[in-house]
């Protein structure tokens, strides 16, 4: 089952695409704009995941250092 975040994202994309279709009145132009928006969305997700993984690695490192200090005492 999809979680609420995915459903909201899909609904937002449907809303934007229908709005583009209404504004441009052209399937091809709407499709092109939607593809650009999806590309930007994918790149932002990739950047966020990379940033989050670096933060998690840093947190793990700090926890390991703290455990080593406790073991030494």
| Sheet with the most strands, sense and barrel status | none
Indicate the mean pLDDT.
91
The overall strand count is 0
* Beta-strand percent range: under 5%
Which percent bin holds the helix content?
Answer: over 70%
Shape: elongated
Helix-strand category: mainly alpha
Element-by-element helix/strand order: HH
Protein architecture, described:
- With 73 residues, the chain is mainly alpha-helical.
- The protein contains two helices and no strands.
- The chain has helices at 4-24, 27-72.
- The mean pLDDT is 91.
Furnish the topology, listing elements before pairings.
Blueprint: H1 4-24, H2 27-72
Helix pairs in contact: 1-2
Summarize the model shown.
With 73 residues, this protein is an all-alpha fold. It is built from two helices and no strands. Helix 1 packs antiparallel against helix 2.
Q: What are the defining features of this structure?
A:
73 residues; mainly alpha
């Amino acid at each position: 089952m999809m979680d609420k975040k995915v459903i909201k994202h899909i609904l937002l994309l449907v809303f934007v695409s229908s709005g583009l279709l209404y504004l441009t009145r052209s399937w091809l132009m709407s499709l092109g704009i939607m593809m650009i928006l999806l590309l930007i969305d994918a790149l932002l997700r990739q950047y966020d995941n990379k940033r989050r993984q670096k933060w998690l690695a840093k947190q793990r490192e700090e926890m390991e250092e703290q455990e080593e200090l406790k073991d030494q005492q």
